[in-house]
Amino acid sequence: MTTVLLARHGETPWNREGRIQGWAATGLTDRGREQARALGEWLAAAYDVDRVVASDLYRTRETAAYLRERATDLPEPTFDRGWRERGFGVYQGFLDEELFARHPDHDPATSVSSLDIDPEGGESVAAFCERVESAWADLRATVGAEETVLVVTHGGPLKALRSVLTDRDRAAALASGSPPNCAVTAVRLGETTELLEDGHTAWRDG
Question: 42-54: per-residue pLDDT in tens?
Answer without folding.
Answer: 999 999 999 999 9
